[in-house]
Amino acid sequence: MTPCTGPTWRAQRRDSAFSFSTVCLGSQIDFEFNEADLRDFYMETMRLTLYQVKDRQGNVLDSVYFDMAIDNLGTATSPVAIERPVENFVITQSRSSAEFLLSDYEIDQFRAGLDSLVLQYHRKPSGPWTTIRSLGVAELKAYFQQTRSLYGQPKFPVLWNPAQTGLPDGTYQMRAVAFSRGFERYSNVVEGVVDLTSPLLRDLTWKDSLLYVDSQLELNFSEEIDLYELTQQGFTINQVVSFGGPAARGSAAVALSPIDPSYYQLHVFETNLVIDFTDYFFASYNGELIEIDIDHLQDLYGNAMSDDIHLGYTIVNGTTQDQGSPLPLRGANLRGRYAAGGVVELTWNGEQDHPMSHYEVERS
Fold first, then answer.
1. From CA 250, how far away is CA 202, in angstroms rounded?
2. If you average pLDDT over residues 128-156, what whole number do you get?
3. In the prediction, which pLDDT does 39 show?
4. Which of 9, 18, 255, 276 would disulfide-bridge 241, Cβ 3.0–4.6 Å?
5. pLDDT above 80 for 345
6. 232 and 317 share a domain?
7. Which of the listed residues 69, 102, 124 is the one where a domain comes to its end?
8. Residue 60, phi then psi, degrees to nearest 5
9. Nearest CA among 328, 327, 226, 211 for reference residue 268
10. Taking 50 as the threshold, does the pLDDT of residue 324 lie above it?
11. pLDDT of residue 300
């Protein structure tokens, strides 16, 4: 046997080149590849291309190529599939795990070889594939003996609880891998969402305690919220009615009178909740103290916000540029505290600690 010279050969899989050697046997050329290279690209297609082929007159012929699948010698590797869930699994606080049923694998190894099965996950878009559980043939056979009457065919459930390992929220893909003598064979890929965190209020666009005509309230949350669930049971706007005492929330001297929902509208734009008020709302409640209560807010996957939201505003049926008589902060729970240097600190509206942008303080 002598090494081949003359023609140039290239073995390639997509953009990955293989190393190989050639041996000439008369009119036959044998190619010898590194088994480790082939194992890495099991079940892929390899192309062999011959360049610089000349006839006896020295004319260069077109290149010649051959496509072939990379497979292991002897028995093929067992197939494997994720039978359920089929797609779009969701893991949340109330449903913190998912069960993946592996099937279609060969434990008797009459038609295909099998050394082990592995269930893996990765976080999109580019997280590494990580093993959840590895199953040997002995364990797979023992489970099949126990469940033969239930399934009829070899199947194995694997429970995945990402909260136990502290995985971040995101979109995840799952796959099963069958191994036989170092060769791999992959299952279908199942995709779903892991969302184990509650929504949080990040920002509030209107931080003034006075709510002027044509004002729009916008609340920004850490994730998209469920508008339908919010409007069904979790959102109210109330007029704060005082009976002479301080207008502190929960005080016996205060009652909350619900405001007709037709006076305002709720909109959700991605992670923002927007509250629009009608002109009739400002005309009807001019000078009154109102309270916005959000008692049941959850994200699109049912995770509830841990704290309720209560916002207090005094309604002004005018703009910040309007001139006129000052509007008293009725029932605003005004308090004073003497500070050093002859300074008196005033606070009001116990539900909000944000400074007002336009106010006057009078002494009597």
1. 26
2. 92
3. 67
4. 255
5. no
6. yes
7. 69
8. -85, 125
9. 226
10. no
11. 92
CA–CA dist 219, 227 (Å, integer): 13
Q: What is the mean pLDDT of residues 102-120?
A: 89
**pLDDT tens across 254-295, in order?**
788 999 999 999 999 989 999 999 999 999 999 999 999 998
95 in the same domain as 54: no
- Whichever domain contains 251, its CATH number is 2.60.40.1220
pLDDT at residue 213, as a whole number: 86
Distance CA 174, CA 192 (A): 8
Total structural domains within the chain? 3
> How far, in Å, CA of 192 to CA of 214, rounded?
42
Tell which of 194, 228, 256 closes a domain. 194
Do residues 252 and 199 make contact, with C-beta atoms less than 8 angstroms apart? no
Is the Cβ–Cβ distance between 338 and 235 less than 8 Å? no
Spatial separation of the C-alpha atoms in residues 180 and 291, rounded to whole Å: 66
pTM: 0.62
Residue 206: the pLDDT is 76
Q: Are 247 and 212 in a shared domain?
A: yes
Tell me the CA end-to-end span of the chain in Å, nearest whole number: 114
Asked if residue 242 and residue 115 are part of one domain, the reply reads: no
- Find, among 168, 82, 92, the residue nearest to 123 by Cα: 168
Residue 353 lies in a domain: no
- Outline where 132-177 has alpha helix (H): 137-151
Q: Residue type at 115?
A: D
Q: How many CB atoms lie within 10 A of CB 59?
A: 8
Host domain of residue 313: 201-347
